[in-house]
Amino acid sequence: MAEAQLFVSQDEFTCSVCLKTLNNLVSFPCGHNFCLKCITYCWDQNQMCSCSQCRHTFTTRPELNRYTMLNEVIKKFKRTRLSPPLSQSYAGPGDVECDFCTGKKFRAVKSCLTCMASYCQTHLQPHYEGDALKHHNLVDPDENLKEKLCGKHQKILEMFCKTDEMCICLKCALNEHKNHEMVELKTEREAKQKQLGVTLRGIKRRLESKEKKLKEMNRAMEQMKISVKQKMEEHDKSFTALIQCVEEAHKKLTERIREQEKREMQKAEGVMEQLEKEIEELKKREAELNELSETKDHLHLLKTFSSHCVLPADGDSLNFIVTADISSEDLLKELSGLKKSLEKISQWDIMTRTPPGTVTLHVLLKSIKRTSVTIKGIPRCMKKACSFIFLSKPLLLQ
């Protein structure tokens, strides 16, 4: 059978003469216990025989009672006190060490805000047994106890000054912050916790909005690629049937189209990259706020609250729009009249005109009448034929 543990206080086995654990215990008729060696020495030094505990005087040396079984219990108690509990473990990386262990230190199980020290299970016992230590403020192990002290008075930070937005000790409350509005750390923590909730909800809304926008951008880009591919195939079939003049014009226009497509693709990719960065930043901020919201350290939350509870600046990435609207019906109708004007086409330049304040992204394949395209010196049939050129913004052909 496993040996039972002894849940007793050391004071119960302490000799009142030597103030150590009883050794070879003997009992007086009055009921008090002493070490045999201690009481024999006292009686040898004094003519009067008396109890050192209650001062009861005996006319003759009383008969001392010995308790063999109780002496065995005391021996086991000594061994229990000298051996660390089996559940204790040495401090490892990230653990708080016991401040009172010598040599290899055990892992601390509690920190005392009154003593400003951390204790393992063995060295923590006096806080449970001694009357002078029972009322100390014990918390979970904390390696940053100094941060909980007032830098001016070296007292525990127990209050929060709402006037100056700072944590203070009781001495600060009675002096520098005497007439200020003050609350307990827990009360202020609850208020800040509510503000954290508001900030987190704001971040979640932004995340949802930006993630939705990113999906829309991806879909629009795919639609644009499909549309461009389809229209290029149509125009390739038309141009390959024309003479060398048509092929040369087709080649030059295709090159310009590709350049324009590349520019607009780069713009779109830039917007997508910005959205991804903003989403990553918001997720990072969300994780930090979740971690801060769940911390049990009131002081840490209050000290870092101001820097974490501000929403990051929101850019204008949500204002970008990709519109895949490709229409070149007029081109097919006017191809029959294109041959006479092909030589002029190769001399034209494609330019992008950006209206003031425009930040939207477009893919426009519309007729001249429905766009901001200006074409000079071109026959009517050629104006409509040229409308197949796809653009990201209003186009100017000259």
Automatic annotation (TrEMBL):
Highest taxon in the source lineage: Eukaryota
GO molecular function, one term: zinc ion binding
Domain B box-type: 145-185
Keywords: Coiled coil, Metal-binding, Zinc, Zinc-finger
Entry-linked Pfam families: TRIM_CC, zf-B_box, zf-RING_UBOX
Record flagged with keyword ATP-binding: no
Domain RING-type: from-to ranges: 15-55
InterPro entries: E3_ubiq-ligase_TRIM/RNF, TRIM8/14/16/25/29/45/65_CC, Znf-RING_euk, Znf_B-box, Znf_RING, Znf_RING/FYVE/PHD, Znf_RING_CS, Znf_UBR
PROSITE patterns: ZF_BBOX, ZF_RING_1, ZF_RING_2
CDD domains: Bbox2_TRIM16-like
Coiled-coil zones: 175-295
Protein name: Tripartite motif-containing protein 16-like
Biological source species: Erpetoichthys calabaricus
